[in-house]
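Input/output pair, single chain:
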Amino acid sequence: MPPALTRAQSRALPSAAPRTSVALAAAGVAAMLLTACSTTSDAATSADGTSAATGSATRTVDSEFGEVTLPTDPQAALGMYTTDLDMLITLGVPLAQSQPIRDNGYSTFPSFFDQEALEGITPFTNFPEFSYESILAAQPDLVVNGLGYDESIGEKLSEIAPTYSFNGFDGSDWRVKFEALAEALGRTAEHDAWTEKYQAKVDDIRARLDAAGLDPVVGSVGVNDDQVTVSCYGTPCLVFDDLGLDITPLSDGEGAYLSFEEVGQLEGIDAVFTSMPPETDGSFADSFEALAGNAVWQQLPFVTEGQIFTSDLEMIYGSPSGQYAFLEEVEKALLP
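Output:
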């Protein structure tokens, strides 16, 4: 786990040692899995890549964890994590009628996802505890699993449906994984369309910043217990970098951990971006409430000038809609 996350971000990041909400060893689920395996995994595949059981064509592709055989035209795909679901939506892959969401303050899909694509789809909680029973009940014909840091997750999912796994939380640029997924699913045109749309937005914002003579120093800042953290985890610094913004050097390397007495080191930042789960009405609590009585904090320019901007925590975990939505948040903040 990246060390410079805020307390809210730390609670929300997928763990390398997840628990399951319903044990796969339970007799009912085990029986269902055996039934599923007998009709999918054991099905013969003809020389032209057609499954004898389903009549659907398949293709064998490379993944981070070796070769996998996937349907060429999935009709009920499922994303193991919300970022995976967003990738499927962006690539135009038909979805299973129920899809996972996270707990930690969320009861439905992120508001910045394509709501039209999610119409009629029922959410079920699948984080921080995984519900393999609910995944099986969704009857997916393809699972995209970005939680590949734990190979056992992919192994369990493969008993339910063909599964494409990758590690979406290794600290690298999520777009590399997204491009590989698009190639694996034969959806490069959809991937390229999103990339072009995103880059056009970046170019427009950069041009307007230049026209306005704006070159602020920005930082992704939060509070973790009794420390202020500055980091480059997730989409924020990807967006900052794409826009050519000046990112505070406190973000370099592993980031910075500042005691409340050291917050004066933030003085060179012009605009602070932070994230947390939204309230039920879409508003956000004060991320920096613990610093309300800190005289040094209260005198920092970005505090006195109201340059603290809070966005939905889900945006920072790399996915197409998340990154585009955060780009729009930066646009609204710097070009009001």
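The radius of gyration is 22 Å. The chain has two domains: 13-186, 192-334.
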